Automatic annotation (TrEMBL):
Keywords: Disulfide bond, Electron transport, Redox-active center, Transport. Signal peptide: none annotated. This is Thioredoxin. GO terms for cellular component: cytosol. Gene3D superfamilies: Glutaredoxin. Residues 1-105 form the Thioredoxin domain. The record marks 24 as: Deprotonates C-terminal active site Cys. Belongs to the thioredoxin family. Disulfide bonds join 30-33. InterPro entries: Thioredoxin (IPR005746), Thioredoxin-like_sf (IPR036249), Thioredoxin_CS (IPR017937), Thioredoxin_domain (IPR013766). The record marks 31-32 as: Contributes to redox potential value. GO terms for molecular function: protein-disulfide reductase activity.
Length: 123
C-alpha cells in the first residue's frame, strides 16, 4: 500500500475508520523530511494493514497548528482512533519497524483504561 495524502478534511475520517494510522508531518523544504520519505514509503509497502498518511505542513498549516506540530518531520500513530505515539525527527527503518510492532502489540483495553484514569473527574 502506498502513502495517502491527508488534509484537514480527510484526517479525522481516516483515523476513525482504520485500526492503525501512521502519519508523517513533513514539508518540501525540510531535508530530514526528504530523507525520511523513502523509509516511510518502503514501510507502507510491507504493512498493507496500516494506513500510512502524509500531511504537508505548508499546505495544511491550520491542521499542523491544531495538532501542535512544532518540528518536522513528526510521526504520529493512532490505533482505534486513539493517539498512541508521537515523535519528532526522522526515524531509521529498523526503528520505524519497532514503532509499528509496538503499536500493533498494544492492548487497547489497557490503553483506554489508562486514559480514563488520567481524565479529570467530573464533579
Amino acid at each position: 500500500m502506498a502513502t495517502t495524502t491527508l488534509t484537514a478534511e480527510t484526517i479525522g475520517q481516516t483515523i476513525n475508520e482504520n485500526e492503525i494510522v501512521l502519519i508523517d508531518f513533513w514539508a518540501d523544504w525540510c531535508g530530514p523530511c526528504q530523507r525520511f520519505a523513502p523509509v516511510f514509503e518502503a514501510s507502507s509497502e510491507t504493512h498493507p494493514d496500516v494506513v500510512f498518511g502524509k500531511v504537508d505542513t505548508e499546505a495544511e498549516q491550520l491542521l499542523a497548528a491544531q495538532l501542535q506540530i512544532s518540528s518536522i518531520p513528526t510521526l504520529m500513530a493512532f490505533r482505534d482512533g486513539v493517539p498512541v505515539f508521537r515523535q519528532a525527527g526522522a526515524l531509521p527503518g529498523p526503528v520505524l519497524e519497532q514503532v509499528l510492532s509496538a503499536v500493533k502489540g498494544l492492548d487497547m483495553d489497557e490503553v483506554r483504561a489508562k486514559i480514563a484514569e488520567q481524565a479529570p473527574q467530573e464533579a
